[in-house]
Each structure stands twice: as C-alpha cells, then as structure tokens.
Design a protein that fits this description.
The chain has 170 residues and is of the alpha+beta class. It has a single domain, classed as 434 Repressor (Amino-terminal Domain) (Orthogonal Bundle), CATH 1.10.260. It contains six helices and seven strands; from the N terminus they run βββββααααααββ. The strands form two sheets. It has a four-stranded mixed sheet. Strands 1-4-5 form a three-stranded antiparallel sheet, with no helix packed on it. The longest helix has 15 residues. It starts with a strand and ends in a 5-residue tail after the last strand. It comes from Methylorubrum zatmanii. This is HTH cro/C1-type domain-containing protein.
Length: 170
C-alpha cells in the first residue's frame, strides 16, 4: 500500500462541509488502484466543526442542530432536555430550520459551553455569540466550508493532537 497525507480533503458532516488540510491519510493499492482514506479523531472533528458553526453568524439549519447534537453524543430527546425544550420543538427545528433570535443565541451559548473543553485548540469567547448579529443566508447560498487542520498542542503538561480552524468565524 502506498500512503500519503492529502493536502486537502472535503468531508460532508451531515450538511456542514469541512475542508481538512494536511490531515487525512490516503492508502492506495498500486496493484488494483483501491483507495481508502483515514480521518484522524472523527469525533474531535465533529465537535470542532459544531463549535465553529455555532460561532458563524448565519442562522442555524436543522442539519446544523443535528450536527451539534451528534457532537454532544445526545439523541433528540436528551438534547431537548439539556436545552430545556420539548422534544417536539427540537424535532420541528431539526426538520424545518432553526430557532432564530434570542433562543438561537441561547442554544449556541449552551452548545459552546458543553463543547469547548473538548476542542482545546479553538479559541472560544462567549462574547462572540452575545455580540453576534445572526443573518439569514441569501436565497440559494450555502454555508462556506469550514477549514480545519490538525495541530499539536500542549495542555496540562501533555502534548496532544487537536483540530484547529484555518479561518476565523465570519
């Protein structure tokens, strides 16, 4: 097997596109051209992208909410309870779009508060959400991909790999 690290790899994480830079390993069989890819720390990637998405000032979609719930390892009922919502409300938001307004900001605060300890390389300041003016995406537009890379960082006197963003939230 031939092995290489891809300079970029695009991954759909349930409606949110992530571009992984210098992180994904590709294994290619020279005899049969079979190709496999390996993404390191998929759960860490999902958590990082969910936190970064919460920091982007575009209205959340149902897919965004599902990714955030997945990042927290919660089913719909558990997530609704954690956010002090009814399961019916959560289901409606996931099927038809987000909450909007102050409710959406509170949801973003809660998600980031629960996720930020799992994504140590990404700077999170609650004031980002407090000051955020949430906008609707223009008709037909899609969220731009979230670019991330693997970094080595030191935390609690130990080195660890973590996902970091290549751009600041818009």
């Amino acid at each position: 097997m031939e092995e290489r690290v891809l300079p970029e790899h695009t991954e759909d994480l349930g409606g949110i596109t992530a571009v992984l830079v210098d992180a994904v390993r590709e294994y290619r069989c020279p005899g049969c051209d079979a190709v496999e890819t390996e993404i390191p720390d998929m759960q860490g990637l999902v958590r990082s992208v969910a936190l970064l998405r919460a920091l982007f000032p575009y209205q959340l979609t149902g897919g965004d909410l599902r990714l955030m719930r997945r990042a927290l390892d919660m089913n719909q009922k558990e997530f609704a309870e954690a956010m002090e919502l009814t399961p019916e409300t959560m289901n409606r938001w996931e099927r038809g779009g987000g909450a909007g307004g102050a409710t959406e900001k509170l949801l973003r605060h809660n998600v980031c508060a629960l996720l930020h300890r799992f994504v140590p390389a990404i700077d999170y300041d609650p004031a980002q959400i407090t000051k955020m003016a949430i906008k609707k995406l223009p008709e037909g537009a899609v969220m731009p991909p979230i670019k991330v890379r693997r970094v080595v960082m030191k935390r609690d006197h130990h080195r660890e790999d973590a996902w970091d963003t290549l751009c600041e939230a818009a």
